[in-house]
Design brief:
The chain is of the alpha/beta class. The chain has helices spanning 15-41, 89-107, 122-126, 138-147, 180-194, 211-225, 231-237, 297-307, 360-374, 403-412, 422-431, 454-482, 484-487, and strands at 10-12, 53-61, 80-85, 111-119, 173-174, 204-208, 242-245, 249-252, 277-281, 288-292, 314-323, 333-342, 385-393, 415-419, 436-444. A hairpin with a 3-residue loop joins β7 (242-245) and β8 (249-252).
Length: 501
């Protein structure tokens, strides 16, 4: 009988040694589960349940004082024992290493690494590209829960990010926002919704609600991957390693002589997934991921719930909106600095009465990008851009309500634009401590008789998509230059916060 390898808890003063131990435990657990599963689908019936566990990291701090108080993460604020389970060190290697280093540097105490009591569900052990039931008989499928652990909803909730988790007596405090099973579930869901593996996602994410933006983004990315003899253009293109499309189709950058990434045709997709993702990759993960989330707050919450576990450094909403002011023109930009959140999907996790503040670094980067791309500066920028409150609602046909009901809340909130996704994206960014921002483009003015109709919309999109996308890409480059240390603002952190970013 094959039995899982035992690991005693170990203390590490060196963060790299601690992370190597995490890799060892995790890979051993996966090997055990996968070996058992292969025997099971070949007909072997074990007389015991095949169980393996996630690794954990634990920190015990008596004196929480730290040498550098500028960072908003990487430390614990109170004495005590802190703990989290870990998963997929192949994806999170650099992230875990940074968090480990910050904790050791902040508190000068060793990290404990060991084998947790949290079981790894067989679905998560087999990975995003494996369908558990495809090679099994109906009887094997029926007996699967008796042989292998299944996902357990009791360890998959968002109590920690929602600030509702209270450790029981003697229980350690959380080190991170998400447990390992919660992360694994989101990695699987990302594959399902976006058609790409989680390992391709980059640290700067743009959400959009129109395929026009995706088409232009794909065109730009394919051009960046093509070889050029112009040395200036070549230097610009060399910062990217590959472009990944749904189905995990990979186009490697032809300008890199020693590019470790190679072309891959990917899996054929008969149709695009619900929210397709496209990744302009950099070797250090600081490239840009763009996702067409479609229309509505439900999609916006669904995808951002899962992208959040990847701990991106920023996400932006680039989309279209209804302009609510007479002074606006079609094609004008709206930089959100507040949100009237009537999306009706976030109220259980982040009540609409809780303010979602603007983040200065994001706001300044977006404003600067608009100025640089359009050529308008200073006071002249007001000719094409308004800053104010964006109303996010859940009814696309809001124009059909009685006028007095349409206008009351919009007028009271001083909203300058209305859409169906921005408040949700910003609200989930605030909830999950991911820096967020919104730059919209006015595509219609229903309150002033300019409705979005097919012919008008097509002409508008052709004229504005390219410029709007260029602004978004430039804003992400500016945010990358600022650096994650400054982007992860104290505004996003509560007074009883986890240490991991």
């Amino acid at each position: 009988m094959i039995t899982p390898k035992k690991f005693k808890p170990r203390l590490f003063a060196d963060p790299e040694d601690a992370l190597n131990a995490v890799h060892e435990i995790y890979e051993s657990s996966l090997d055990y589960l996968r070996t058992g599963f292969q025997s099971y689908i070949k007909g072997a019936v074990p007389d015991h349940k095949i169980v393996a566990h996630y690794p954990y990291v634990k920190l015990s701090v008596e004196n929480p004082r730290r040498r550098d108080n500028r960072l908003s993460y990487g430390f614990v604020a109170q004495p005590g024992v802190y703990y989290t389970t870990l998963t997929r060190p192949d994806i999170f290697h650099h992230y875990y290493l940074q968090q480990f280093r910050l904790l050791v540097d902040s508190h000068s105490v060793p990290l404990e690494v060991g084998l947790s009591n949290t079981q790894i569900p067989i679905h998560f052990a087999l990975g995003e590209d494996f369908h558990v039931e495809q090679d099994m008989s109906p009887e094997q499928i029926q007996n699967l829960p008796y042989v292998f652990d299944q996902p357990d909803l009791s360890v998959l909730d968002d109590q920690v990010p929602n600030c509702t988790y209270i450790p029981g007596p003697g229980e350690p405090k959380p080190l991170s926002l998400f447990t390992a099973p919660r992360v694994d579930l989101s990695l699987m869901r990302l594959r399902h919704y976006t058609g790409t593996a989680a390992r391709h996602f980059q640290n700067y994410v743009i959400f959009t609600n129109y395929q026009f933006y995706i088409d232009e983004f794909s065109r730009i990315c394919h051009e960046l991957m093509s070889e050029t003899d112009n040395p200036d253009i070549r230097r610009e293109r060399e910062q990217y390693s590959a472009f990944v499309e749904p189905g995990n189709k990979i186009t490697a950058n032809r300008n890199l002589a020693d590019n470790p990434v190679t072309d891959h045709p990917g899996a054929h997709l008969a149709r695009l997934p619900q929210m397709p993702a496209y990744h302009l990759m950099r070797p250090d993960g600081s490239g840009i991921t763009m996702i067409n989330i479609g229309v509505g707050p439900s999609n916006a919450k669904t995808i951002s719930d899962h992208v959040a576990v990847l701990r991106p450094h920023a996400w932006l909403m680039l989309g279209h909106c209804a302009g609510l002011r007479n002074s606006q023109s079609l094609g004008d930009y709206v930089l959100a600095h507040g949100y009237l959140r009537e999306d009706n999907v976030m109220y259980r996790d982040l009540h609409p009465s809780i303010p979602v503040p603007p983040l200065s670094e994001i706001q300044l980067a977006l404003e600067k990008a608009v100025s640089m791309v359009t050529g308008f500066n200073g006071y002249d920028l007001k000719k094409i851009m308004r800053t104010g409150t964006v109303a996010t609602i859940d009814d696309r046909n809001w124009e059909l309500r009685a006028v007095v009901h349409q206008n009351r809340r919009l007028s009271q909130s001083r909203a300058i634009a209305l859409d169906m996704e921005s408040g949700t994206i910003a609200g989930n960014g605030f909830r999950f401590r991911v820096p967020y921002g919104t730059l919209l483009c006015v595509s219609d003015k229903p309150l002033h008789g300019q409705l979005k109709l097919p012919g008008m919309a097509d002409a508008f999109y052709r004229e504005r998509v390219d410029q709007h996308l260029q602004i978004g890409l430039l804003a992400m480059a500016l945010l990358r230059d600022i650096g994650p240390e400054r982007l992860h603002s104290r505004k996003l952190r509560s007074f009883n916060e986890v240490a991991f970013q």
